[in-house]
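Input (structure):
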């Protein structure tokens, strides 16, 4: 079976290349992904193989709406919980803050158990937010900059800050427009 390893640090990207594993980026800025992709490709070359876009996955939170204006309004007005920064700047002491701190430490290369204040700052890429056309353009940018050939869209339902009707609309729009476009199937990109 194929193995997917994190690409969120240069060290893990290097290991993935040496092990002939797939590379997975999570919530990172495209330029940082591109840097780590170069490390991955170099390590793969040292091992005698050449990864393709199909070996590179990008994971990001996603909010789709019928228009950019609607998506931005939902995101900005806090309809997704206490506000747009919730997932990337959670309240101190919350369970989510603990998870983000651990993820940040791993992405930044901090040693396990390092105190929170000593962990390097991690720059998360903003979620994919907009109409299907806009989010498709954001994904195409990731393809170009970071060599991404696979995408994992994270849609958080009611218990995770997005009311279920908004999460369901995101999934519906992804199925109607985004997925067909990504697979090269003709689809109407606007209603």
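Output (sequence):
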């Amino acid at each position: 079976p194929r193995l997917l390893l994190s690409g969120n640090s240069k060290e893990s990207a290097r290991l993935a290349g040496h092990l002939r594993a797939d590379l997975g980026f999570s919530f990172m800025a495209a330029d940082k992904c591109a840097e780590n992709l170069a490390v991955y490709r170099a390590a793969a070359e040292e091992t005698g193989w050449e990864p393709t876009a199909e070996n590179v996955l990008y994971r990001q939170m996603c909010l789709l709406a019928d228009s950019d204006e609607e998506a931005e309004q939902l995101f900005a007005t806090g309809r997704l919980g206490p506000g747009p920064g919730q997932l990337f700047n959670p309240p101190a002491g919350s369970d989510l803050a603990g998870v983000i701190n651990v993820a940040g430490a791993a992405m930044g290369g901090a040693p396990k158990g390092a105190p929170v204040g000593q962990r390097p700052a991690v720059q998360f890429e903003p979620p994919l937010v907009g109409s299907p056309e806009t989010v498709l353009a954001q994904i195409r940018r990731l393809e170009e900059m970071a060599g991404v050939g696979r995408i994992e869209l994270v849609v958080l339902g009611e218990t995770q800050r997005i009311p279920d009707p908004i999460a369901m609309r995101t999934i519906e729009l992804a199925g109607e427009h985004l997925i067909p476009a990504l697979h090269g199937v003709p689809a109407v990109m606007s209603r």
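Notes: The two ends are 40 Å apart (CA to CA). The first strand starts at residue 4 and ends at 6.
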